């Protein structure tokens, strides 16, 4: 929920974001990159390193 004073901050200077929303976004991109990397690693290499 945004307050009237916060509307000018959207996508501008001093934009505010909840800590939990930032964590969710970072977690999404972390797993996106991790899963993409795992798909490109040969299975034999995965088995030998784990």
Mean pLDDT: 76
In angstroms, what is the radius of gyration? 19 Å
Spans of at least 5 consecutive residues with low confidence: none
Shape: rod-shaped
Class per helix and strand makeup: mainly alpha
SSE string: HH
Kindly state the number of beta strands: 0
Q: In this structure, how is the largest beta sheet organized?
A: none
Which strand-content bin applies to the residues? Answer: under 5%
Looking at the chains present, what oligomeric state does this protein adopt?
A: single chain
Separation, N- and C-terminal Cα atoms: 45 Å
- Summed up, the helix count is 2
Fraction of residues in H or I helices: 55-70%
Secondary structure topology:
Elements: H1 19-40, H2 43-49
What would the keywords be for this entry?
50 residues, mainly alpha, 2 helices, 58% helix, rod-shaped
């Amino acid at each position: 929920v945004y307050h009237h004073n916060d509307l000018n901050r959207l996508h501008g200077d001093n934009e505010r974001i909840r800590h939990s929303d930032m964590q969710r976004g970072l977690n999404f991109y972390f797993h996106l990159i991790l899963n993409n990397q795992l798909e490109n690693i040969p299975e034999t290499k995965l088995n030998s390193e784990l």
